[in-house]
Amino acid sequence: MPLPQTIARWRVRLGFAAAVVTVVLAQPTSRTWTAGFIVALLGECLRVWAAGHLEKGREVTRSGPYRFVQHPLYAGSIVIAGGVALAARSVVAAIVIAVYMGLTIAAAVRTEEAQLREAFGTAYDDYRASRAAPMPRRFSLARAIRNREHRAIAGLVAGFALLALKIGGGA
Known about the structure:
By secondary structure, the chain is mostly helical. The chain is 71% helix and 0% strand. The protein is built from seven helices and no strands. The protein is globular and about 55 Å long.
């Protein structure tokens, strides 16, 4: 199996490892925690919006944030990671987060794009080249749940709860 596919397949497990390292290294204050949580919450809002439009494996989705960003779930994850790095208030943790995100998101995008190109051919190429017309579709919370976005929300809440336990003195 090519390296990008291996990394993409292991990204959740690697994410747990990166999260443990981040929590251990974190030195949050109430101010950095709050600012980081707000940033991460914005990223999760983007993910929920995207998940509420995505029909995974059935089509090239062109509604909601997919009209503007080719990979809004990953974009939301990057924003969340920035919020975690801010909240953690640790340069080493921020480096761990950046390396993890850089490797896994790049691998996931490469793998996913190859699968979409194989499954949808020119429809995906048109989407990538911004030639595909947007599709009318309303956001659906049921669709977001079907896409298991509640798991990402639970992870976000759990991660920030652990960081809250580490809040020290200072501003």
